[in-house]
């Protein structure tokens, strides 16, 4: 007997691509003999509610990193299987899990594969899959998400240039496992997977199956140097720069002022502690190297 599958649909993801492809997605699941339940929550709490009320054995996200963030927090450590049809703007999670660049039929088929367990990073009662950012990248991400134009990844470039005029370092006190450091920095990233900001390889060694979180700290730099380093980050070539510090740990505590964003969504205020939760999520169709 085929199972019931719930689609978590973000109708605005990828400038409306999720809604545009809904019929094609449902037809493909129907081809495999599955019945479909379409859910369209618009907040984290509503996502948790509709997922808890659903009898579906698999929860499939039709959208991008923000939609996935909600679903992760609804399914983490529950034993339920999550799938992803990546139709968002950045799709950093899909890139990290090697489930991007498929056509719709292939994406649906991947969602029906046997799941694998991956790590998540937890702070308080909240989880994230890709990365959590503070400082300049968080400001850029917030601005990009609020922009109606341009569409697509170019909004991140426009947002970066717009936020440069407000560039200021922040003081961070970090407890990385048993090591404490203090640093003035423009940006801080805690990552479970390599990518953020629409494919920028901020933590090249991050792997969501190794039980380790990766940390990238970009120290105090000029505007021109920041732009130069952001160009390097695109391909993960920034890690040896003098202004960049990379760490790997099981946990980190960040003492500072400001707001955090995770998976491209508002997350929580600083200070905050984070830790790896191994094998916290079952996800279908992932290919980890």
Record keyword descriptors for this entry.
289 residues, alpha+beta, single chain, 9 helices, two-stranded antiparallel sheet, 15-stranded mixed sheet, 17 strands, 2 domains, Rossmann fold, Tumour Suppressor Smad4
What does this 3D model show about the protein?
This protein is of the alpha+beta class and 289 residues long. The chain folds into 2 domains: 4-113, 3-Layer(aba) Sandwich (Rossmann fold); 128-278, Tumour Suppressor Smad4 (Sandwich). It has 9 helices and 17 strands. It has helices at 17-20, 22-31, 44-53, 65-75, 92-96, 104-111, 136-146, 154-163, 223-233, and strands at residues 4-9, 35-39, 58-63, 81-86, 115-123, 126-128, 131-135, 170-176, 179-191, 195-196, 200-201, 213-219, 244-249, 251-255, 259-262, 265-269, 272-284. The strands form 2 sheets. It has a 15-stranded mixed beta sheet that branches. The protein starts with a strand and ends in a 5-residue tail after the last strand. 46% of the residues are buried.
Proportion of strand residues: 35-45%
Low-pLDDT sequence parts:
none
CATH topology of the largest domain: Tumour Suppressor Smad4
Question: What is the CATH top level name of the largest domain?
Answer: Mainly Beta
* Number of DSSP E strands: 17
Determine the N-to-C terminus distance. Answer: 33 Å
Q: Give me the CATH architecture of the largest domain, please.
A: Sandwich
Q: Give the SSE string.
A: EHHEHEHEHHEEEHHEEEEEHEEEEE
Radius of gyration: 19 Å
Please tell me the overall pLDDT.
92
């Amino acid at each position: 007997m085929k199972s019931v599958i719930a689609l978590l649909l973000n109708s605005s993801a990828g400038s409306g691509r999720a809604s545009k492809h809904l019929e094609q997605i449902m037809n493909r699941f129907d081809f495999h003999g599955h019945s479909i339940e379409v859910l369209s929550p618009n907040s984290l709490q509503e996502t948790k509610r509709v997922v808890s009320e659903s009898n579906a054995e698999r929860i499939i996200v039709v959208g991008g990193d923000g939609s996935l963030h909600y679903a992760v927090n609804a399914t983490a450590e529950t034993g339920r299987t999550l799938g992803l049809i990546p139709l968002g703007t950045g799709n950093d999670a899909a890139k990290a899990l090697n489930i991007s660049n498929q056509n719709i039929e292939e994406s649906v088929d991947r969602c029906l594969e046997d799941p694998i367990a991956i790590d998540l990073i937890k702070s308080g009662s909240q989880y994230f899959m890709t990365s959590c950012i503070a400082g300049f990248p968080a400001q850029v991400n917030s601005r990009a998400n609020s922009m109606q134009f341009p569409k697509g990844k170019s909004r991140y470039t426009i947002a970066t240039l717009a936020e440069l005029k407000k560039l200021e370092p922040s003081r961070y006190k970090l407890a990385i496992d048993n090591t404490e450091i203090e640093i003035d920095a423009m940006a801080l990233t805690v990552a479970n997977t390599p990518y953020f900001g629409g494919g920028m390889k901020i933590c090249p060694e991050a792997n969501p199956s190794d039980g380790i979180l990766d940390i990238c700290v970009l120290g105090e730099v000029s505007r021109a140097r920041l732009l130069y380093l952001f160009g390097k980050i695109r391909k993960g070539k920034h890690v040896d720069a003098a202004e960049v510090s990379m760490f790997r740990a099981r946990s980190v505590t960040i003492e500072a002022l400001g707001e955090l964003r995770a998976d491209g969504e508002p997350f929580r205020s600083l200070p905050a502690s984070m830790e790896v939760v191994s094998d916290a999520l079952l996800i279908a169709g992932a290919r980890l190297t």
